[in-house]
């Protein structure tokens, strides 16, 4: 049985790619938080973690 493709923007809002991107943002923020070299990366690490977490919460409510 074939499933119909979702038209237009709905196909891009599937949970897979955006949810993976949010997880990568969270991981990048944690790495930025734990690195001992650049103070600029440490400074923005909380913001990156926060954006990734909020994005994950929003995307996880999208229908599959």
Short key terms for the protein model shown above:
single chain, 64 residues, mainly alpha
The number of distinct structural domains comes to 1
- Strand residue content: under 5%
Instruction: Output the radius of gyration.
Output: 16 Å
Structural class: mainly alpha
Order of helices and strands: HHH
Number of DSSP helical runs: 3
Sheet having the most strands:
none
- Counting DSSP E segments of at least 2 residues, the number of strands comes to 0
The unreliable regions are none
Please estimate the helix content.
Answer: over 70%
Overall mean pLDDT score? 84
Distance between the termini: 18 Å
Shape: elongated
How would you describe what is shown here?
The protein has 64 residues and is mostly helical. The protein has one domain. It contains 3 helices and no strands. It has helices spanning 9-12, 15-34, 39-59. Helix 2 (15-34) runs antiparallel to helix 3. The chain is elongated and about 45 Å long. The two termini are 18 Å apart. Keywords: Membrane, Transmembrane, Transmembrane helix. The chain crosses the membrane at residues 44-62.
Report a brief summary of the structure.
This protein has one domain.
Topology:
Elements: H1 9-12, H2 15-34, H3 39-59
Helix pairs in contact: 2-3
Keywords: Membrane, Transmembrane, Transmembrane helix
Transmembrane segments: 44-62
């Amino acid at each position: 049985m074939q499933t119909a493709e979702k038209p237009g923007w709905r196909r891009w809002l599937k949970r897979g790619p955006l949810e993976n991107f949010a997880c990568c943002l969270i991981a990048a923020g944690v790495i930025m938080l734990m690195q001992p070299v650049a103070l600029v990366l440490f400074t923005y690490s909380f913001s990156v973690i926060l954006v990734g977490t909020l994005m994950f919460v929003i995307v996880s409510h999208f229908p599959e």
